[in-house]
Amino acid sequence: MFLDFFYLLREKGLDVTPTDWLTLTEALDKGLAGNSFTGFYCLCRAVLVKSESLYDKFDQAFLEHFKGIAEMPEIPPEFYQWLANPRGSESMDGQKHQSPYRTAEQIEQMLRERIGEQTCQHNGGTYWVGTGGSSNFGNSGAGQEDGIRVGGQGHYHAAMRVAGERRFRDFSEDQVLGLRQYQMAFRRLRQFSGETNAAKTELDLDATIQATSDNAGKLKIEYKRPRQNTVKLLLLIDSGGSMDEYMAVVTALFQAVRKSNHFQDLKIYYFHNCIHDRLYTDPTCTPGKWVESESVLHQLDGNYKMIILGDAEMAPYELLNYRYYGQNRMCGLDWFQLFQKHYPHNVWLNPSTGGRSLWHDDYWSVGSHYDLSTYDILNDKFDMYLLTVANLEKALKKLLVSR
Amino acid sequence: MQTNLTFEGSQDYVAGADLMSAVNISMALQKPLLIKGEPGTGKTKLAESIAAALGKQLIIWSIKSTTKAQDGLYFYDVVQRLYDSQFGGNDVKDVEQYVKLGKLGEAFSAEEQVVLLIDEIDKADLEFPNDLLWELDKMEFYIPQTKQTVKAKTRPIIIITSNAEKELPDAFLRRCIFHYISFPDKDLMRKIIKVHYPVLEMDLLESAMNAFYALREQRGLQKKPSTSELIDWIRALQIGGISAEEICKTMPFAGVLLKKSEDMAELEKMKQTGRGPFAG
């Protein structure tokens, strides 16, 4: 039953399984759809959709599939009573609209057409079916002498109206992240192991039993180390000028990482647009508060997981020019790649929308040697993820999985 | 055992039609009901209301971040037993006195059908919902210490609430009926408030509600005020004897609605520029 709807839902990305579908069929057998279209809509949504971020997709699929049914104007039985006695009404200030008297059949025909045309709720006005207006149809309005009062709730089309309202559009997963969501996402960065140097605080039951038996029955309690997270994280944050507009996002992510105090080690450094031979320990990138990038590479071994947080927007010469920072004959891109090689588990998180090419188009359009924007170059070299809910989860999962 | 129970809200809880339908569906299909929603939209109260409406006992299992699935089934007090064996006292051969049933175990071993509320399941560890899958399916578990199987005589009505902080594992979601309690619109909110305050001036109610919804619509708030905060606010306004006109002018007792200092600062800004609840 409704198998087309099932496949449409899967096409829209809703991952409905055959088991869910059988549950739906079972529920329909038990009469749980309540003999109304709205009840059917609620039933489908409750059984098939498992997250409010998918409600919008479900609404769209439902509208698309069942549009044909809604277009059949179902005239409630009250209509036939009213057609026999069309209700006259007076407007608030006593005016009545003059309209040529139509026969009941003509009005009914107009209603069918009008319902077919109408795509949204309407109040006021003189044409559509709705409330508070002065057309031939609707209620609570200064209607015409020969009009028809349509029921206030509109129950027959409520399901389509509810789905059409698209109330859950904001819940789809491409929304802006908040602090709490970052924290939850970062909790995923865990690899538990008992092989740490933590204090022994958990009761080790088996060892206790063994030790007690060895001790000729006198109780001897043994403790073991609790399992701890062994993930070590290196976070490199871009605090160049172009990142100012993402301050809120960066702050939230930074706070989330700091509050996730379960990392075995957490090191945070800052750079201005691009990594060079020094990394700053302070977001303002003040000279003097820095460490050598080489020493960072020596101290923090390859077991660290590296996250680079930046918008990858900078002047192309910063990234590619060998003479910009002359010390090691390495350009910015070389440094990025050196870090990438040293830390095989790495991801790049980008709070911007990606590829604005501000520098490229506006500043460097004439006489520029560089055809690609820095965003494109870095996007190519790194696993870059734009910061949305879905992407953050993907990025962190990827960070854990070994190559 | 087929029972034709239906839920239609109770005296002190107003539920939307889709919520009532989700509850009835989950009861008829005998699947757990997973409720998500903004904090303060009445998820916990829903379970209380269901239990009251159906006249069943309510068992609440409040999940903490340290909760393990085993805690819900049973707890075997080993250390007590070891100490007793060392220092005499109770008869240690009787294992049963050291095995205490958790909330899920209680729900299974109840004589009649109960309502079991698993509150805020997303607070626990990531693997917690998966650990419960078998027990939720089969409605039974085995205690090796006493060699007993605790089996549910009647399937309890299980309601699970989540604050939407974490994504729950897919295998767990498959076994549930899901419902998201969206924020009530003005009509439903009016009904909810009438349940709490049967005697309330219409002016005060309308003015407070308009200000509240206008405030919620403003961007820049870190934590939007929710239903329970509105109810508290109206109480404060009643006690303070505030009139309807004053509400739009000064928003008294805003600390009841907004709990963050950044939001209070934002409210001040709105007052300066005449936005949000201060408009018109």
Question: What are its keywords?
Answer:
heterodimer; A: 403 residues; alpha/beta; 4 domains; 5-stranded parallel sheet; 3-stranded parallel sheet; 16 helices; B: 280 residues; Rossmann fold; 14 helices; 45% helix; elongated
Characterise the protein shown here.
The complex is a heterodimer of chains A (403) and B (280). Chain A has 403 residues and is α/β, with parallel strands linked by helices. The longest helix of chain A is centred in the first third of the chain and has 17 residues, at 55-71. In chain A, the strands form five sheets. Chain A has a five-stranded parallel β-sheet with strand order 9-8-12-13-14. A three-stranded parallel β-sheet of chain A has the order 1-2-3. Chain A is built from 16 helices and 14 strands. Chain B is of the alpha/beta class. Chain B has two domains: 17-181, Rossmann fold, CATH 3.40.50.300; 186-271. Helices cover 45% and strands 14% of the residues of chain B. Chain B contains 14 helices and nine strands. In chain B, the strands form three sheets. In chain B, strands 2-5-8-1-9 form a five-stranded parallel β-sheet, with helices on both faces. Chain B has a two-stranded antiparallel ribbon with strand order 3-4. A two-stranded antiparallel sheet of chain B has the order 6-7. The longest helix of chain B has 16 residues, at 202-217. The radius of gyration of chain B is 23 Å and the shape is elongated. The N and C termini of chain B lie far apart (59 Å). The model of chain B has no long low-confidence stretch (mean pLDDT 85). Chains A and B meet through α2, α3, α8 and α9 of A and α1, α4, α8 and β9 of B.
